[in-house]
Write a structure and sequence with these properties.
2 copies of one chain form a homodimer. Chain A has 15 helices and 16 strands. By secondary structure, chain A is an alpha/beta fold. In chain A, the strands form 5 sheets. The first copy, chain A, has a 6-stranded parallel beta sheet. In chain A, strands 1-2-3 form a 3-stranded antiparallel beta sheet. Chain A has a 3-stranded antiparallel beta sheet with strand order 7-8-9. At the A-B interface, helix 13 and helix 14 of A face helix 13 and helix 14 of B.
Chain lengths: 378, 378
Amino acid sequence: MDFQLLKTASKTKARLGIITTPRGEIHTPVFMPVGTIATVKAMTPDELVQMGAEIILGNTYHLFLRPGHKTIEKLGGLHQFMNWKKPILTDSGGYQIFSLSQSCKISEEGALFQSPIDGGASHLLTPELAIEIQECLGSDIMMVLDECLPYPATPLVAQESMELSLRWAERSLNARRTKAALFGIVQGGMYKELRKEYIDRLLELSYHRTLAPSHSFEGFALGGLSVGEPIPEMYDLTDFCTNILPQDKPRYLMGVGKPHDLIECIDRGIDMFDCILPTRAARHGTIYTTRGVVTVCNAEYREDPRPLDENCDCYTCQNYSRAYLRHLTNAHEILSARLCTLHNLHYYMSLVREARFAIEQDRYPEFKKEFYNKQENI
Amino acid sequence: MDFQLLKTASKTKARLGIITTPRGEIHTPVFMPVGTIATVKAMTPDELVQMGAEIILGNTYHLFLRPGHKTIEKLGGLHQFMNWKKPILTDSGGYQIFSLSQSCKISEEGALFQSPIDGGASHLLTPELAIEIQECLGSDIMMVLDECLPYPATPLVAQESMELSLRWAERSLNARRTKAALFGIVQGGMYKELRKEYIDRLLELSYHRTLAPSHSFEGFALGGLSVGEPIPEMYDLTDFCTNILPQDKPRYLMGVGKPHDLIECIDRGIDMFDCILPTRAARHGTIYTTRGVVTVCNAEYREDPRPLDENCDCYTCQNYSRAYLRHLTNAHEILSARLCTLHNLHYYMSLVREARFAIEQDRYPEFKKEFYNKQENI
């Protein structure tokens, strides 16, 4: 994997770049649709390509439990299994272990957890296994296993967690057997000191390996944000971290966020985003548009012949009325999930495309202002 | 609406025809995907067109209750509402009143029923209202309201029901205000005598109107079949009825059926079919293929890299393995419903296309034999 920083805006930290992988180029800032369990919910790969998706995310935790990474490997890897030919970033499974498992015990070795789906079987996820799973899947960009802190966490807990996660990060680097990229993850709770130390020590880990450059981190992710803290604090920490992170590696803000979060964090130097929001919200009839959020099942749309977003050229907006989508959503029709997901993802893809264009034209602050001016209800 | 009988097979009663409507031609024998509530579940109209669908079915009962025929009329009719430009056949709502409503009282005037969705409100569906709803929807082919007999029904009950339904059929003819086609429905339970009398009297009703030809029936449906009777009896009654029905009108066997039912009933002179089976079964992982039924969630497909049907050129079979579809189905993913529905409908569409081709070539008996020879598990 290679990252080329094409341009940094003159008045903000917004950056334009290209990540090159054997499976294709990724233009940053990028939004990555989440394909949890080998499918971006309700979408075909063709539809994702058509809306401009250049990379999607797969969840190691879910795929490990079902259908199993060995099964996917036998079937030719995740790309072939799900018919997606462009790059895939996989997470390490850590976040889901902490948020979805019935119980989770952390030891030096790894995270012992009970599966919620296969009769409560116990599994030990180690940093090495997390890499092995991601390599079996055929991931293009892998993530290290890290401990996910609860929010809020005391400084002591955060410090101890950092020490463990750094040891895991080193083990992850050592475990890698393929040429897939590997990103380090910066935790450290809401403590700037810790975030700084975390970054320094991840870089140190990486620089120790300059003799074997394929074993250093190809990028850095910010973890443990958007976990319940006030949004200004999230922005502030992001800003703080991107001041320290190296310029020549992509920065990935994990699990963020709403459209204006993308706008703000691109402004603060983030290159990569993923979030389940556009897909999950769509399935509940919450629609993102250039003018703000439309709750499509509201009674006011009962006879509304207008598209979800009059400024949108997606298939949904070109062919269907709010009234029809309201009807489908209220009737829990599968087509509602399809059409709303298609629109929401198309909206996110258009948003980052416009952001990239604004950076290229060096008018990001103006673009940001226009974005907020158009929003009626956020 | 116009029906042109192009050809009848030399050794069987299989027929080739074209129904012409202002919204397009329908080549018969035809299978009509069911779009109950203004959507063929999980499919877009584009996908239906691509697989060769020339007409779909809409359910008056469901659309009357939600979102309401007046709402749909305001929004430009059902075609515009759901973005389907080809013909739509609507049923009268009768069958659903009897099968889905919490209570239903029949009087001379109509059927009084309680809605299962709007807090149990009472509605009186009369023959006139059934026509009005269908006209508001903008249906291309409407059906008369009839009483649906329970199975089994005594001869006396069947006779009385026929008398009422015939009076309703006449009222339906009188109620029509547009040029949409209207089909009569032949009931009569499992009694051949009654079926014959029913057909004779429907024809009589129709012929009485030769001075106003737009007010006669443009086709005839067989109702009350495939309701629990032995399948050979269903075939036998179908055969009996098509011997009496006029040659120059399309015959529609309502709610039937499995692939081999289509093969058998085309053989007996049926032109039109609809059934929820391919769409509903798909959502439960039951797949129809040229070699028989595949239950996609079976463990045997866990690592099966083959497509659902190796003889199929649908998007699903061209791009996905049984293993992947099994995984999606077990995980209750929306994409599973999409891909399996696409395949099943594509299979039904291919089956009737091949049947039409066989009739054209006057080799229907050979085609039928080949169909059964390929099936491994029916």
